[in-house]
Design goal:
508 residues, FAD/NAD(P)-binding domain, 4 domains, 7-stranded mixed beta sheet, 5-stranded parallel beta sheet, globular, binds flavin-adenine dinucleotide, binds nicotinamide-adenine-dinucleotide, oxidoreductase activity
């Protein structure tokens, strides 16, 4: 840091020949203070979604990243991209094994180094347009180092001070650490280390059955690990519909994954032995070669000197309002750090809201009523809009439609008759607009199949549009029409039948 006071002095001789010293003191002048319209701390999904557009609009933007390698954030480096590449590799291996159904025997042994290479190569393709040089060419200023607030609108990085009218804090989150006696004895992985392994763990113990734990459980089981998942509550994927998560759980268990509920680690006896404990206090021993910890996320708020910018923290979360403003209205939160839904697309949604509110007098509030997410297991589990509990809490009347796939032609030929779609549709009569309020689906590629339903939800489209659409036979999305059709069939009562029969007599 530069000194706060500077001193300057000079000697001179007065008229009588006496030597004199005059000393001037003055306060620090920040010659190195750089000024911006916007500073973004963190170059992940959130930071990038705000910065790119502001630069295109001609604003002076500084983006700060802890290290050059971390540009792209968790999504590119340790999250979505490597996990989805791993899931793809595991699906290829799984499909190769599946050919035995048709008389061709293959028992692929996985070379995990090649899988890691595949992941790395995919990341490198994306890194070509998510790196320091690229963003500098695009018009960003980039500072590398840990940012700290030094005053209300001011941050410092590597001894340089920066000031801006607005600051976006997008420092993301990191995996929570598991603490248990003896943990130092075991090979410990989390999402920051699992995509760089050299050896496939023969026995993998996964802690936490959220989206990370469940996606990785299936991928590693398919690659050849013997997987046990330990979850300290009674369900996998607790943010999704239980009726659908039970279908997924059954399929994972049938594939050989062991899931232990209401259980957690008590301690580790050795590098290869975990002692687990159920809620009832029953102990059991599990053999392992490594553990993978996915027990939730911790927000990256430490070391930022938030108090110097008057930003309040309560219960390890930054206090934030619906406009994503902190207690310092010029500092906005974007992405995981906002403590809301932790998805790349949620970070992008925050980014869009912030952009709107930076340049428009019509300020928008964060609203998750159209949010969606997909867990990329096989089958995928996709969820969107409002769920049953939220609809009831908000006193919104709705009809629940449950469509199973047992008799769907596409599900029959492609072997996913276990699939299920649940829709919540607003109440209405005959031609009155009925709209899709939310729903969820389990099926292979459910994340893609559900997109037209999400569009209908977001745009407030009448279900008549889906009911009247002509779908090529046998695309998988015909199931969406079938579900909506269930409501239309309810309109056929004794009275409507009589009316239609009368119309037949009169008009045919
Ligand atoms: C294994 C895994 C799989 C996932 N899969 C999906 C998925 O399929 N779909 C999905 O939508 N989401 C997925 N997510 C979640 C998604 O990755 C995150 O929600 C998203 O990356 C959050 O973006 P962010 O910008 O908030 O934070 P990040 O992407 O983590 O970016 C934060 C950046 O800030 C930097 N930073 C931190 N502190 C400082 C500091 N003091 N100074 C300067 N820079 C700092 C960090 O280095 C980092 O680059 C997954 C996450 C994981 C872990
Ligand atoms: N496909 C996707 O979109 C995707 C994929 C992966 C991650 N993500 C995002 O990343 C976030 C973090 O994922 P996550 O799975 O780490 O977190 P999570 O909080 O969703 O799940 C962690 C699970 O671990 C359990 N748990 C906590 N402590 C435990 C312990 N000591 N022993 C056993 N179980 C324990 C919790 O009950 C919880 O069910 C998710 O919320 C999601 O938003 C998204």
């Amino acid at each position: 840091m530069p000194a706060e006071k500077y001193y300057a002095g000079f000697f001179y001789t007065n008229k009588s020949g006496m030597a004199k010293l005059t000393v001037y003191t003055f306060k620090q002048i920040n010659y190195d203070m750089k000024k911006y319209d916007l500073i973004i701390i963190g170059a992940g999904s959130g930071g990038l979604s705000v910065g790119g557009f502001m630069v295109k609009l001609g604003f002076k933007v500084l983006m700060i990243s802890k290290t050059a390698h971390e540009i792209g954030g968790d999504c590119l480096n340790d999250g979505c991209v490597p996990s989805k590449a791993l899931i793809h590799a595991a699906a290829v291996v799984h499909n190769a094994r599946e050919v035995s159904k048709f008389g061709l025997e293959l028992s692929p042994e996985v070379d995990i180094k090649k899988v890691m290479q595949y992941i790395f190569e995919g990341q490198e393709v994306i890194r070509a347009h998510e790196n320091k040089d690229y963003f500098e060419k695009e018009g960003f200023d980039i500072a590398i180092g840990e940012a700290k607030f030094t005053a209300v609108n001011q941050v410092s990085v590597a001894n340089t001070n920066y000031k801006a009218k607005k600051i976006v804090l997008a420092t993301g989150s990191r995996p929570k650490k598991l603490t248990a006696p003896g943990i130092e004895k075991v090979t410990y992985y989390d999402n920051r280390s699992i995509f760089k392994i050299n050896e496939l763990p023969k026995k993998l113990l996964i802690l936490g059955a959220g989206p990370i734990g469940i996606e990785m459980a299936q991928a590693f089981q398919r690659l050849g690990s013997e997987v046990t998942v330990v979850q300290h509550s009674h369900a996998i994927l607790s943010h999704d519909d239980k009726e659908l998560t039970l279908i997924l759980q059954k399929r994972l268990e049938e594939a050989g994954i062991k899931i232990l509920f209401d259980t957690t680690v008590s301690h580790f006896d050795s590098a290869n032995t975990a002692i687990l404990k159920t809620k009832e206090g029953i102990e059991m021993t599990v053999a392992l070669d490594a553990i993978f910890v996915s027990i939730g996320r911790q927000l990256n708020i430490e070391g930022l000197d938030l108090e110097k910018a008057n930003i309040k923290v309560e219960k390890e979360h930054i206090v934030v309002n619906h406009y994503l403003q902190t207690t310092n209205k010029n500092v906005l939160l974007c992405g995981d750090i906002a403590g809301n839904l932790q998805f790349s697309h949620a970070a992008e949604q925050h980014g869009r809201l912030i952009l709107n509110n930076l340049i428009s007098p019509l300020k928008k509030k964060l609203n998750n009523k159209h949010m969606s997410w997909v867990t990329f297991t096989d089958p995928e589990l996709a969820t969107f809009g409002l769920n049953e509990k939220q609809l009831k809490e908000q006193n919104i009347t709705f009809e629940k439609v449950v469509q199973d796939f047992a008799n769907d032609d596409r599900a029959i030929v492609d072997d996913y008759r276990y699939g299920k779609l649940i829709l919540y549709i607003s109440k209405g009569f005959w031609f009155q607009k009925q709209r899709i309020l939310g729903g969820c689906m389990i099926a292979p590629k459910a994340g893609e199949l559900i997109q037209e339903l999400i569009l209908a939800n977001v745009s407030g489209m009448s279900i008549n549009t889906i009911a009247g659409k002509v779908y090529p036979y046998p695309v998988a999305t015909r199931i969406n029409q079938k579900a909506v059709g269930q409501l239309k069939m309810k309109l056929i009562t004794d009275n409507t039948k009589k009316l239609i029969q009368l119309a037949f007599k009169m008009f045919s």
